[in-house]
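Why do we care about 3D structure at all? Because function follows from shape, and shape follows, mostly, from sequence. That is the central idea of this module. The next example makes it concrete: a single protein chain, its amino acid sequence, and then its structure expressed as tokens.
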Amino acid sequence: FMYADEAKLSSFGLNEDFARCLQECASLRQLYCSHNPKLVVTHFARALPSLQNLVVVDLSHNRLAVDDHRTFYKAQPLGPLLVSLSPCLRVLDLSYNLLQDEHAFQLVEALEACMDNGACGLRELSLKSYLLG
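And the structure:
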């Protein structure tokens, strides 16, 4: 288990350090990483291929769908993050991340690709407060 809820990821450097730390945890099976509104998705996504044993990932309350780390706000694609998830993943929580329709399509594509590659199959998916439609 790793609990990284409310981590103090206030800079790009701290996000890079966190990603490097994750990459060293190859046998990690459960990752709880919620309430990190400054989590940089690109750094986090680079660490995920090292975590192929993950069965539980909680990324709720992280504002994943928006990049507001600089002086402007912009939407951010989640495709690279989603395709990097473990093929053994059983539980995924993406609630309260300001996700929209394009992210739903990216999620479906990533899950279909995972299943096509012989993945075990997701059993629980939480998408509370999803901005669909």
